[in-house]
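Sanity check record (used in CI):
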Amino acid sequence: MDKFNFTKRALADLPVPETGRKEYADTKVSGLRVRVAPSGRKAFCVIRKKGGKFIRSTIGVWPDLTIDGARRKALDVLQEIATTGNNPNETRRVHEQANVTLSEALEEYIASRGDRIKETTRNQYRAVLGNYSQEWMRQPLRHITRERVQQRHKAISEGRVSWTNAEGRRVEMRKASKAQADLWGRALRAVYRFSHDHYRDEDGQTLLPDPPTMVLSTKRQWNHVSRKTSRIRNHDLGRWLAAVELVRSEAIASREDTRAAICDGLDVALFTGLRRSEVFGLTWDRVNLGGRYFWIEETKNGDPLELPITDTLLTIFRRRWNVCGTISPYVFPGPDMAKPAHDPRKTITRIVAATVPNPNPDGLKPIAFACHDARRTFGSVAELVGVGTYILKRLMNHKSKRDDVTEGYLSFSADELRDPAERIERAMLEHAGLAQKPDAALDSQLAALVEGMPDKDKRRLLFELAAKLHGTDDDTSASNGSEQG
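Expected output for Integrase:
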């Protein structure tokens, strides 16, 4: 290795290697070296052996770091190694990790989850933390205190938080939201807990204080927003389905294909209980009209789901195929046929308005609706018709509990799910007045048959039915009559 007195002229004249890196030693400070890379970059580093370990620590790049500055810094590093025995690289790493920012910790948390966390969840974490705690993102995680967490959670609950959007415009919360405050708290808690365990020094000691989100639990400040229970009531199913049909017909007539697709998607959500993303993300390669089944590959819990195509669904799928089956990969495409419809809010607003009849002698109010109401409606009707707990969980694709051994042995395909799915569909149509109950239909047939019979035949039929109900027949009745005579 070449050794010489580092000077500006000497360093400037160092040749640039074609491959690899060339290293030179300073004669004034033992252990100070300069490494020349093929790119022409010249970096100062310190070399030292301590405890049988070889230590190399980069201290700066020339000419940003002067030769005199490099010598002073090298002496400081060499003294630290000699007195403490610490590797300056490890010291620097610990310092950097101890000062990890919220943004860096968030990305490390997401990366550690890999495929176990969905893209929608990743985006939700980035949006919630990036909006409601925007000014914290570049701050060290250890600077987030219990007091700051407590104050920010309260501010979000009361709708007093604002942030700068991607266009540079200042945005304020449209309304107070206790649910969003708890969502923000859970996201921050997940990232901080991960970081608290992940970032450690060489002795395994954690580098961060205890999670500050603990204050929300110890001081009982979680809002604990009640789970939503809204759904379409059974007696409102007729109004709702009629309103969907009206908006769909108007959309078809005016060639508003996206609006018509959304109407069909909302009907599929109601008659299957599928989540919004599962419905509108459905592609034709997962629909088998001939076999009367379809399947969802990417579900919320990660398990694929195969469902039967009932009569109502078959009508919808055939209508969708005639519209876009050969020009779009999606069953419910948006304006761009290569992408699915993604925002049904405007269409839902029209449908809700259409649920009010005109004239309205009973003063009926609009049927409030959110996409997840369809799922709750499906589950409620399914429970009422008695499809069974395990069947219902499979239809709605709910995750099995680890301690439920029985459920682990059950496997239902579209064929086994067909009968319960048809029972649920028929119950919905009956509530909507679009299908007659079997006993009601039979009563109507009997009434029509008896109506045209002579009175004599009606009496004879009545006596025969009465005799059967009492466990006798015509011969017994006749013989009894003869004996009495």
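The chain has four domains: 2-86, 102-218, 234-431, 439-484. If this sentence no longer matches the regenerated tokens, the check is flagged for review.
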